């Protein structure tokens, strides 16, 4: 399990560094405040969803970091399987990679949360040809991967909570994109699945 913890921690660091580096680049080079998650001035529905996502994702990051450093020391493991742990590592690594690719290809349109204060560009190329929300696909793989690496009730609850919360955020974001881009977004959503091969 030591190797799982080591790889998990490396993936955690890669995710965190890439996330904050993107925020720093947008802020410094482009003067864009990209983190608008839970900011004031939004509708009650959007604010509630964004605050839930903010809290649930912080909890997920804390649980991921803790497990990477200390393994399953405090929580009863639901089952032991090296093969499942390996699948968890692969899912998490794929999730981190997809997230970074989506973030890079979004260029200056990338935001954390719904931004109704500035005009962005609708990105439909690259990984966005296969999914309207590839960054969220990456997150979902990371949530599931965490549970598979460290299968206990805490990681299961964290994964389920974040999968539901992020899906609710996607629904709110799609309303915003429909009102912002109109027919362009409608056509994009008609030919591109919300996630990958299916349309939830």
From TrEMBL:
Protein name in the entry: Protein-S-isoprenylcysteine O-methyltransferase Ste14
GO molecular function: methyltransferase activity
Gene Ontology cellular-component terms listed: endomembrane system
Gene Ontology BP annotations: methylation
Transmembrane domains' residue ranges: 6-25, 82-106, 153-171
Topology term for the membrane: Multi-pass membrane protein
The entry's keywords: Membrane, Methyltransferase, Transferase, Transmembrane, Transmembrane helix
Keyword Nuclease: no
Pfam families: PEMT
Cellular compartments annotated: Endomembrane system
Keyword Repeat attributed: no
Family matches, as InterPro entries: Phopholipid_MeTrfase (IPR007318)
